[in-house]
Amino acid sequence: MTQPSDITIEVVDDDNDLRNTLVMVLRAQGFQVRAHPSGPAYLSAERSSGIRLMLLDVRMPFMSGLKLHAEIRRSGDLLPVIFMSGENLPSEVSDDPEPDAVAFLWKPFRTQQLLQAIELAVQSYKT
Predict the structure, then answer these.
(1) pLDDT for 53-88, tens place per residue?
(2) Rg (Cα) of the chain, in Å, rounded?
């Protein structure tokens, strides 16, 4: 049985306050967490190993979450992705032909919603 401490969550969001809050909440739940302020910052970081998933903001400067997602998939990385957005525009994800997101969370979301999405992501994990 997978324990939270076996899972690394990559948080990619340009909102410093939200990113720090997510890190605090997720670590309190026992997860390993790596935080990145942008898509380029994530791409330049060393890839973590083991069970991993991503919480990815859709709207960010320099590189949108959708572009980062496409780049990750092009590289062959199949880590599960949970998209997050503060905008109430479901069409945001339609720009990606196959978003294959595990979940889509509208900000602000509750901790329980986040944990349910993470559970789905872990169940769908592909190495």
Answers:
(1) 999 999 999 899 999 999 999 999 999 999 999 876
(2) 13
As a whole number of angstroms, the distance between CA 58 and CA 47 comes to 21
In angstroms, the CA 44 to CA 15 distance is 19
Which pLDDT does position 2 carry in this prediction?
84
Pairing state between β 32-36 and 81-85: unpaired
Q: 24 vs 17, 19, 66, CA distance in Å?
A: 11, 9, 25
Nearest CA to 43 out of 9, 67, 15 is that of: 67
* Mean pLDDT (whole number) for 95-120: 84
**Angle at alpha carbon of residue 88, lines to 83 and 89, rounded to 5°:** 80
Neighbours of 116 (CB within 10 A): 14
